[in-house]
Amino acid sequence: MISRFHHQQMQLHKWIINVSLKSMNWYFLSLGRWTKPTATYLQTLRKSLFPILFSISLIIALLVNSLTAVNAQLPRQEIRGVWMTNNDLHILRDRTKVQEAVSQLRQLNFNTIYPVVWNSGYVMYESAVAKSLDIQPFVFRGLDGHDILADLINQSHRQGLMVIPWFEFGFMAPPSSELALNQPNWFTQKRDGTQTSISAAGEVMWLNPFHPQVQEFITNLLVELVNKYDIDGIQFDDHMSLPVEFGYDKYTVDLYKQETKQNPPANPQDPDWVKWRADKITDFMVRLNQTVKQRKSSLVFSVSPNYYDFAYKFHLQDWLNWVRLNVVDELIVQVYRSNFQSFISKLDRPEMEEVKQVIPTGIGIMAGLRNNPVPIQQIRQQVRAAQQRGLGVAFFYYESLWNYAPEPSHERQAAFQDFFPYPAIRSASVR
Questions:
Q1: Is residue 425 classed exposed, middle or buried when 0-12, 13-18 and 19+ CB atoms within 10 A define those classes?
Q2: Which residues pair with 82 in a beta bridge?
């Protein structure tokens, strides 16, 4: 696959060559038209001009190659991000703490913040969409009543950081959420009729990604966010998917029978049944991308899934196909592993090599949890491995960068400064 960037450089080479040839032809044609020189004179002139023209062509070629090399290494192509989760709400709600956090990230040469905006069936901003469905009895606001997302965006943009809101829960919602209680027909089930699974977020239900009303709901949330805020992109993660055991609700079964003239296989891992559901999710992602791009073409459509083999086989998330269909503008694969060999095995997979030739690609690295701190040496080893392979990085999550850690905060911050010794400015309009 030829990358978009490489294609642009090839076109530039062709353009310069064509211009040079046309200019030479025009010059000699002009001489023939106005001076009517003899054939001998023209031959002598060509010989005398050849060294000059050759030198000019050589200089142009060197300049183009130099420009290509510089552009290929543009620092803004490198992802240096951090997720801000519900655990960071005490920071997000305080303007002063947000300013301090953003300034600190800028000083350490980060360039992207991924703040959570969709979690546990609730949005993190005042939403007319959520209000119309009566699924959110409260609004997350700052300490002085301000809009926390707008504040983060404003302060981040002043410091030159991109803000890409993160739809953390994707199709998940807790059984106790107003969304699950008020819209029971929107949720799918396993073959035995059970509707929940156990995730890192606890017991959850799964919205039916094939149901048109669910698709309309997710689309409306995105359109609202794009229209309301000066965001740089949208991010979905591994939960914009469906566990392979699900999809046996009445709506999906009827749709499958209508399209295939047969019942869904009893085995949820049947290859054709897996592909049918994965393709349906892909179709929705294509439409979702088109919808948001129509409103703001420069938006970064970001995806942060698990490694491909797991994502497709166990969560029906065919993200490699999404990339090939030009749906994804940046990819951050979550590789939350303490074992280094297991970590690098995911970085060296062939699909990673393919994708990084096309779009900015990074690795999600665990910086620590409150009950499971991660030593800086492990983080350093993983960051270096990613950088050596031409990959960016994003850390989960903000507060664990230098808090909840085995080392003092100043030691952690010094390490991050070492990871990113120079700025890497990103732009939403440049891939």
A1: middle
A2: 113, 395
Q: How far apart are CA 94 and CA 147, in angstroms?
A: 11
Calculate the CA 322 to chain-centre distance: 11
- Tokens, residue 385: 């491995």
Asked whether residue 428 carries a pLDDT value surpassing 60, the answer given is: no
Three-state DSSP class for 90? helix
Dihedral angle, C-alpha 184, 189, 195, 201, nearest 10 °: -100
Strand partners for 106: none
Tokens 């543009």: give the residue: 74
Which one, of 131, 255, 280, 250, lies nearest residue 185 by Cα?
250
Distance CA 30, CA 411 (A): 70
The dihedrals phi and psi of 309, each to the nearest 5 degrees, come to: -60, -45
Structure tokens at 156: 């981040």
The Cα 313–Cα 283 span in angstroms is: 18
Reference 111, options 332, 335, 347, 420; nearest CA is: 420
Beta strand pairing call for 202-206 and 392-396: unpaired
Tell me the DSSP string of 122-171.
Answer: EESS--HHHHHTT--S-----TTS--HHHHHHHHHHHTT-EE--EETTTT
Report the distance separating Cα 311 and Cα 334, nearest Å: 11
pTM listed for this prediction:
0.83
- The helix (run of H) or strand (run of E) holding residue 18 is helix 4-34
Report whether 228 contacts 291 (CB < 8 A): no
Alpha-carbon distance 277 to 274, whole Å? Answer: 5
Q: Decide: 359 and 329 in contact? Cβ < 8 Å.
A: yes
Residue 220 half-sphere exposure toward CB, CA atoms < 13 A: 13
Residue identified by tokens 């106005």 is 34
The pLDDT score that the predictor gives to residue 142 is 98
The pLDDT score that the predictor gives to residue 77 is 74
Q: Are 116 and 172 within 8 A, CB to CB?
A: no
| Distance in angstroms between the alpha carbons of the first and the last residue of the chain | 16
Helix (H, G, I), strand (E, B) or coil at 338: coil
**What would the pLDDT profile of 29-50 be if each residue is shown by its tens digit?**
444 444 444 555 445 545 555 5
